[in-house]
Amino acid sequence: MKKHWLFFHVKKLKGVKMMWQLIEDFKMSLIEDGKGPKSIESYIGDIKAFIEFL
Q: Where is the Core-binding (CB) domain (predicted)?
């Protein structure tokens, strides 16, 4: 039973890392597209707030 619990948390952690990597990739694409710092801050903040809501 403990093995199952550990597997669930490791799998969840990998998902979280992947999600943050996607956000970082999106941020880099915004920079490459020439978006301003305040726009990037706003977009990323909205995404993070939505994730916390979920």
A: 17-54
Question: Is 32 inside a domain boundary?
Answer: yes
Tokens representing 18 are 């992947």
Dist CA 52 CA 41 (whole Å): 16
pTM: 0.69
In a domain, 5, yes or no: no
Of 25, 53, 10, 46, the residue nearest 33 (C-alpha): 25
Percent of the chain beyond pLDDT 90? 46
For the record, the structure tokens of 31 come out as 């920079």
What's the farthest any 2 CA atoms get from each other in the chain?
Answer: 50
